[in-house]
């Protein structure tokens, strides 16, 4: 009878050790996943911060030179472009590059600088031009309504 109790106790001890190893393994997996999420999040924050200045420089150069092709490359798709008159990118570019008053307003807005506007977006300090970090790159996404 003593042997049965001994075997039973050994079985319980082994079971407890295995359970502890499994919990440790699960905790290790959770820690690894958590670490990956933190590293991934930090990389996104670093990427969008590092990418902003080159994007802004390209955007400024394209606007100053009235380079429609370059501006289009820095804009989101027509589907997501936001302008209060419902214009698509080509119409917005043409209107802002051919109408001197609108072009001056565009330059004035850009010269006001930008500020953070949410987690993944920026807006010019005069609250007119909207930019968003999407699909691992900065994009010009539209004009604030009512402007």
Account of the protein in words:
Helix 3 (89-98) crosses helix 4. A four-stranded antiparallel β-sheet has the order 1-2-3-4. The longest helix is centred in the first third of the chain and has 63 residues, at 2-64. The protein has one domain: Nuclear Transport Factor 2, Chain: A (Roll), CATH 3.10.450. Strand 3 and strand 4 (137-143) form a beta hairpin. It has helices at 2-64, 68-73, 89-98, 100-111, and strands at residues 114-116, 121-124, 129-134, 137-143. The model has no long low-confidence stretch (mean pLDDT 78). 62% of the residues lie in helices and 14% in strands. The relative contact order is 0.10. The chain is α+β, with helices and mostly antiparallel strands and 147 residues long.
